[in-house]
């Protein structure tokens, strides 16, 4: 019998592990549903509890201003899901068991990547449905709206590799607290809720150059939603930065993840 080509084997093994993750989620639907509802609750809280006190640049609708930022926050918070899944498998010895099987060495990483991207796409679809329900709309056509969605998923893809690497280096899933310490400042130290110009100079510079700020600003522009309209270099070049930052993050963490996986147990 002729052996399957290495590339076909890698794809098949990767899909097998993707299917494994999806089946785990199917057996625990409550956990998945709660994860999807958390950002929806955040939208309702900020949009209705605090929205009346918020001033939108140019006098636009606050929820139209808020939603692109919340879409991006959902992509960022997905890093915790990736980290927990990878760290749990590593702590239980499941990753080592996979390494001992006659399967493609890339399957564990690519399988998790594919499953988490499917989860991210579902979460983004739920958020967009929530946005439409509360009065958010895109105004520059379906093509530009799809481009904004692609930028959001590109950010998730980049942060996914950061989550894989951190999960492989963690001592266990309980280390997710350390990841939260990184994720929450990344989310709030951006232009989602406040203009960088209103912050102290050094803090505003960090917020302006935050990869999340680039994606949010570019998404607002593509959706046709109001933004801060700041005259800074990162603000004027948000669209190319929204592509460059995720590519840079991926270029750093993808090889680190592969190297770390190969060195497990040594």
UniProtKB/TrEMBL annotation:
Residues of the ABC transmembrane type-2 domain: 30-264
State the Pfam families in the record: ABC2_membrane
Residues crossing the lipid bilayer are 30-50, 70-91, 120-139, 145-168, 175-195, 238-258
> Which keywords has UniProt assigned to this entry?
Antibiotic resistance, Cell membrane, Membrane, Transmembrane, Transmembrane helix, Transport
Where does this protein come from, organism-wise? Answer: Actinoallomurus bryophytorum
Superkingdom in the source lineage: Bacteria
Establish whether keyword Membrane is in the entry: yes
Q: Which GO terms describe its biological process?
A: response to antibiotic
The protein in question is named Transport permease protein
Q: Which family does this protein fall into?
A: Belongs to the ABC-2 integral membrane protein family.
Q: What GO MF annotations does this protein's record show?
A: ABC-type transporter activity
GO cellular component, as recorded? ATP-binding cassette (ABC) transporter complex
- Subcellular location(s) per record: Cell membrane; Membrane
InterPro entries (alphabetical): ABC2_TM, ABC2_TM_bact-type, ABC_2_transport, Nod_factor_ABC_transporter
Q: How does it sit in the membrane?
A: Multi-pass membrane protein
């Amino acid at each position: 019998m002729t052996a399957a080509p290495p590339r076909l084997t890698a794809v098949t093994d990767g899909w097998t592990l993707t299917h494994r993750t999806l089946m785990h989620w199917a057996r625990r639907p409550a956990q998945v549903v709660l994860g999807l509802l958390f950002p929806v609750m955040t939208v309702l809280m900020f949009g209705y509890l605090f929205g009346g006190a918020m001033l939108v640049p140019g006098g636009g609708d606050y929820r139209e201003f808020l939603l692109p930022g919340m879409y991006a926050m959902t992509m960022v918070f997905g890093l915790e899901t990736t980290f927990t899944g990878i760290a749990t498998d590593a702590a239980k010895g499941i990753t080592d068991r996979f390494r001992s099987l006659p399967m493609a060495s890339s399957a564990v990483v690519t399988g998790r990547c594919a499953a988490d991207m499917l989860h991210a796409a579902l979460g983004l679809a739920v958020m967009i449905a929530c946005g439409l329900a509360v009065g958010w709309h895109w105004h520059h056509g379906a093509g530009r709206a799809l481009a904004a969605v692609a930028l959001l998923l590109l950010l998730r893809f980049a942060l996914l590799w950061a989550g894989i690497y951190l999960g492989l280096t963690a001592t266990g899933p309980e280390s997710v607290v350390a990841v939260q310490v990184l994720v929450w400042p990344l989310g709030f130290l951006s232009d989602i809720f406040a203009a960088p110009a209103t912050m102290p100079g050094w803090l505003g510079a960090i917020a302006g150059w935050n990869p999340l700020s680039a994606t949010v600003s570019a998404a607002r522009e593509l959706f046709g939603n109001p933004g801060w309209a700041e005259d800074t270099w990162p603000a004027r070049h948000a669209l190319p930065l929204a592509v460059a930052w995720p590519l840079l993050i991926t270029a750093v963490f993808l090889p680190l993840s592969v190297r770390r996986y190969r060195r497990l147990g040594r």
